[in-house]
Amino acid sequence: MVSSLLHRFVQAVFTFVVSGLLVSCSASKSTSILYGDDYDIRKDTTTVTIFPYGAVRIPGKWTKTHENDVSQEHFFKGPDSATFAVALNPWDQFEFSNDELTTETFVQAFYEWDAAYLKEQTRGQVAIVKQDKARNFIIWKLTKPSKAIDYFLFGLKGKIAYNLYVESTAWDEVRKVELLEKIYAE
User: Fold this and answer.
1) 83-90 vs 73-77, strand pairing mode
2) Helix/strand number for the chain, H first, E second
3) Helix, strand, or coil (residue 184)
4) How far, in Å, CA of 56 to CA of 186, rounded?
């Protein structure tokens, strides 16, 4: 009798656990994101990991300052008080995403969507600095009335959208563009 009760109890627990697992693994669109950043002194590189979407490696030591909850960008301060930001997100999670977008057209649509928004919000001017269709990215800049110039790289690797940003009054355009390209290439 004790063995029968124990057997029923084990079956009930097993059924409860399996049911819970099935419910938690059902087709919900929610994904848990794990974030981490680490500076490797030997390589002089700061690695930013946004799991399960990927990681970027930024040359030098960068310190996280804040996160924008809306854009999911993580902001860092680095050499010469430069600011760097990164966001990695699934390409089909943007409000402009639709069934007609392809991996070839996504980056252009991403640029048009965000550039239009930032241009309106800042009353600035936007311009494409470099476009590489083979590597699937656009580097563009936003010049604000305050004369501050923000540089962005929007790219797509697999199904992950890359939003990289750099701003520095001490760096010229060449240095900013090289940094964005180097980070995206790794």
Assistant:
1) antiparallel
2) 3, 10
3) helix
4) 7
Place of tokens 């854009």: 71
Does residue 94 or residue 56 have the better pLDDT? 56
CB of 173 closer than 8 Å to CB of 129: yes
Whether the CB-CB separation of 48 and 86 falls below 8 Å is answered with yes
Q: Which residues pair with 98 in a beta bridge?
A: none
Tokens, residue 72:
């999911």
Structure tokens given for 147 = 């004369």
The percentage of residues in the chain with a pLDDT greater than 70, rounded to a whole number, is: 83
Residues 110, 106: Cα–Cα separation, whole Å: 6
Question: What are 1-23's pLDDT values in tens digits?
Answer: 544 444 344 343 333 333 333 33
Tokens (6 digits) for 61? 């030591």
DSSP designation for 35 = E
Rounded distance, CA 1 to CA 19, Å? Answer: 27
Dist. CA 35–CA 13, nearest whole Å: 34
